[in-house]
Amino acid sequence: MTVKNGASTPSSKIEKSPASTPATKSDRTTPALTPGGNRATAKEDKIVVTVRLRPLSKREQAAKDQVAWECIDDQTIVQKSPVNDRSTQTSSFSFDKVFGPASLTETVYEDGVKNVALSSLMGINATIFAYGQTSSGKTYTMRGITEKAVTDIYHHIMNTPEREFSIRISGLEIYNENVRDLLNSESGGRNLKLLDDPEKGTVVDKLVEETARDDVHLRHLISICEAQRQVGETALNDNSSRSHQIIRLTIQSTLRESSGCIRSYVASLNFVDLAGSERAAQTHADGTRLREGCHINLSLMTLTTVIRKLSAGGKRTGHIPYRDSKLTRILQHSLGGNARTAIICTLSPAMSHAEQTRNTLYFATRAKEKEVARLEAELRTPDASEKDMKIQLMEKEMEELRRQRDTALSEVEELRQKMQQEEKVINRLESPRPVMKCLSFSGTLASNMNVKEHNKIVRQSMRKSSTAPFTLMHEIRKLEQLQEQLGEEANRALEVLQKEVACHRLGNQDAAETIAKLQAEIREMHTVRPDLREDEVVATNKSVSANLKEEITRLHTQGSSIANLEEQLENVQKSIDKLVMSLPKYDEPNGDGEGTQNSKSQSKKKKLLPLSSSSGANRQNLLRSPCSPLSATDQVVETEIENRSPVNDGIAAAEAAQGIEKGTPAKTEGTGGGDASSKEGSGYRRSSSVNMKKMKQMFQNAAEENVRSIRTYVTELKERVAKLQYQKQLLVCQVLELEANEAAGYNIENDEDDCEGNEPEVSWTVTFKEQRQQIIELWDVCYVSIIHRTQFYLLFKGDPADQIYVEVELRRLNWLQQHLAETGNASPAPGGDEPTISISSSIKSLKREREFLAKKMTRLSPEERDTLYMKWNIPLEGKHRRLHFVSKLWTNPHDPFHVNESAEIVAKLVGFCEGGKASREMFELNFALPTDKRPWIPGLNHLSNLLL
Ligand SMILES: Nc1ncnc2c1ncn2[C@@H]1O[C@H](COP(=O)(O)OP(=O)(O)OP(=O)(O)O)[C@@H](O)[C@H]1O
Predict the structure, then answer these.
(1) Ligand 1 centroid vs 57 CA: distance in angstroms?
(2) Which ipTM value was assigned to this complex?
(3) From atom 15 of ligand 1, which residue's Cα is the shortest distance away?
(4) pLDDT tens, position by position, 575-618
(5) Ligand 1 site, residue 54, Cβ cutoff 6 A
(6) What whole-number distance in Å separates Cα of residue 459 and Cα of residue 427?
């Protein structure tokens, strides 16, 4: 925070009763801190308070109302008063900025709001309030401000290609302490509940939150909120001046690099258009007495009280009544803590409204006092710049923690050895011989009693000095054990799995090669031996089929080992989960910057999983996994530095407040160590200056990071297993195709001929797109299972390694299409073992599948369902809307957007879409189902029969 010295504000020269204004109050104590703002650049303030004076309205002009206020410079507004006015009321007010009647909203935004609003892009919560009496211009100002903020936000996004942004929006209105969703027209003004979330604070239950696709979409959603509020106005008459509107943007951004680091910001930006302030003022005018018939706006009153209490700053203010109203509960984190706030107080210039205007200015003054109080409190610390330096030191120390941890561990090791030696010395002292030796050696001890006393003192002093290292060592040993347990278990399991997967991959490669060979042979037969007789072709087909069958049998035997493999993967997953559960949760400071002494039960939990030097081998193994390109500690450091959420800042603040000295070992006193402690092992003293709590946190983070990387690795393994399974099934398809051709007496079409004409330079990407589109269209005409489509679509996205799957799927579908065309609606062969695939059986299967998915719609919340119904034009009041909705999925193969969305929805319904990892999780899920539970995949009925 830069503080400019000096200049008194212009207001101090004009004020009639300076003592009553906050400006002079501050001037008296710390002249550099006038709220008017020469003190500091507004952009650095946590609360920026500005006022905007609108022009006289037409109505006021018509009523010949007089202009009562004047902005004499860009920070001061004064009341014009008749010459003979002897009132002692304050007539001059100073703020960060004062905007006169000619000011544009753009200027108000640029000078009073922009910096606060844009801090939300850096992970700092920000709130913009418009406060003022009815018709003073709150909505007028707030609309323009919101519009400009949206423009700037998207401008920033465009200019920050290295980060990926996501913006979510929600809107609500608080009227008469009822919370109404402004984005959900169907809620019919339902009062939403407020819930206390231990992590997020107060949350509005069932509030719709939409993700904005782009700026146009975001503006559209904002306009829906505005429109909803207007609907409410008509229905509730006067509610515009009594209701508060909050539009909340949640802005999240992540660095687009595959470093595996979290490196993300998330913060909310609230635009709050408050109710007319005269409601609160009326009640104030009467003290706390309720005026009969006048409905008091509880939220606004509480907001005023909260601001007043906060403005008492360093003085003991006691309880801050955030919870007394819905508005202050919802905005609690934006009013206190590390959030940034801009308050725009809108004023009518009319003489007839002078009193209300004055009340608004008092409110603005109190709000600014809050900032002044904060700064004063900051200045009361011995040296503000020293505090800044401490924060910087802390940040630097984050980088050094890894090194310090290693140093600490090796020092502990040294200490342990030293102590062992000391123990030996003690033992020698306790035994008779060493006593004699000691006696004879020193020659200064007069009696046996003296020797005993001496030994006792030595022992006591050694034990005292050893208390802290013992505790630390004990702690570290426990951590090492846990770490080793995790490392060994995971490494052992992974090693086995890696081997098995490699074997299976080899086996399947063999199979693929066999097919390729067989196909080549067939091609040869057609090209080299055109003279081949039909019966010879059939015979050859049979042998091809037999070969493939052999292959399938082999794969089938592999099936059980794949199942084993999956089981083992599950076990690894479970043991990892168990270990993760056993990881202790460390106390974290709360948002108010106070170190939370978490519940006793938490503090009783087991301690940490460190990466200790002695478990270096395990650590190396774990970190060598493909998903962990950075060392865990690097990641922790980066995450902590990047993630400047108020909570994290709170940690730093809390520690600063507790006066934790970092990197200044000499100042730290060992507990119970006494002189002996301070003399003994300076190495340990250095390590003990490292904040133990932080060090533990580092260990925990590192261990968790390892677990995460193992998890990712296991997920990858699972994916590979799923692909192997799929490959196996596709091979079965080939046999099926051959058999069908054989039964129909066809020669095998050499589809490879199609490929021969392809220019080699045609890129796989282009081919993939074309083939996938063909596949999508064929799925549609063949009534293929939509779960299968979803799986395939999400799993095979154009990776060159997918080529074989895409080609075989295309081939299978071509065959299926032909087959369906030929069999038409043929019934199953009477007495036949295998059901014939027909159009009607496929349609039936598909219908059953849609019914199954309709039931799965319960996986979505009612709000999610309603949003989807609206989007997909399903009447919300329809009786069978779930089925109606599901029946629309995967019905338009020509619309890529439709296809993509259908796939995502189906994936979600089946339950493998969480965390946006549909493609990873979905495949295994499908194959995890017993084949008899997946009867809807045409063609796979055959396969399962063959496989069983
Ligand atoms: N700075 C301004 N310049 C010109 N006209 C303004 C300005 N501010 C407000 N107005 C006009 O004054 C009228 C009242 O403004 P607005 O509706 O924004 O007030 P409000 O404080 O939101 O009122 P309410 O509390 O009833 O919602 C509107 O017609 C608006 O166009």
Answers:
(1) 9
(2) 0.99
(3) 137
(4) 555 555 554 443 333 333 333 333 333 333 333 333 333 333 33
(5) yes
(6) 10
